[in-house]
Design a protein that fits this description.
Shape: globular
Largest sheet: 7 strands, mixed
Structural class: alpha/beta
Strand content: 15-25%
Radius of gyration: 20 Å
Number of helices: 8
Helix content: 40-55%
Length: 215
């Protein structure tokens, strides 16, 4: 199956498989069946087999999956065997929190720079890198060639900043603004993160569950 034929829902389950398999490996599991994995993850065994079959044959009939080998294969599919250079744009409260608390290397990225327009932040350390002026962005990108960027800028600045970064060679965005870059840049990779949407979804689930209990 070609890369383009694999559904987004399958791709979004891969990191979860990777995480669960890592936990199983820490717990001493050597092998696991699709049925056992389905029970732990709340999926069906059929769904798990279908997902894995999108990328090849990883298990053996009557044996199941070797936990370490399967996790390694999924890591390769996710591109985690190499580190992609990444920069942070916007070193305010959200940007600093992301830089400080995300283990980028375990996710396939290397945070190599941080930029902001606020002079008060210049020289401050966040995520192991010093915050620089956005005026230095082009020169930095020409030398270091980051392929990905974290956007933590105001919504009104997002599109212009994305255009600027694309001109610098950036091909992927972890976007925390409220502007959907895919509406204007269909040829780049974007992961839009809307924390408020996630919290609203939690509200829906909480209220729906409460109503069901009352009925």
């Amino acid at each position: 199956m070609s890369k383009n034929a694999i559904s987004d829902s399958v791709i979004r389950r891969l990191p979860r498989y990777y995480r669960f398999l890592g936990e199983l490996e820490k717990d001493g599991y050597i092998r696991i069946s699709s049925r056992e994995l389905s029970e732990k993850m709340g999926l069906t065994a059929s769904q798990i087999r279908q997902d894995f079959n999108c990328f090849g044959e990883f298990g053996q009939q009557g044996y199941g999956y070797n936990v370490r080998d399967l996790r390694g294969e999924i890591g390769k599919i996710l591109g985690l065997e190499k580190l992609t250079p990444m920069i942070l744009i916007g070193a305010g409260n959200l940007g600093k929190a992301i830089a400080a608390h995300i283990d980028f290397s375990s996710k396939g990225f290397d945070l190599i720079g941080a930029f902001d327009a606020n002079p008060d932040l210049f020289g401050m350390k966040t995520g192991g890198v010093s915050v620089q002026s956005v005026d230095e962005l082009e020169a930095f990108c020409a030398e270091k060639k980051p392929a990905a960027a974290i956007l933590c800028v105001p919504m009104e600045a997002a599109e212009k900043m994305a255009d600027r970064l694309i001109e610098c060679g950036v091909k992927a965005f972890w976007n925390f603004t409220h502007f959907d870059l895919r509406t204007t840049h269909a040829d780049i990779s974007v992961e839009n993160v809307h924390l408020g949407d996630s919290l609203t979804t939690l509200s829906y689930r909480l209220n729906t569950f409460s109503k069901e209990k009352q009925n």
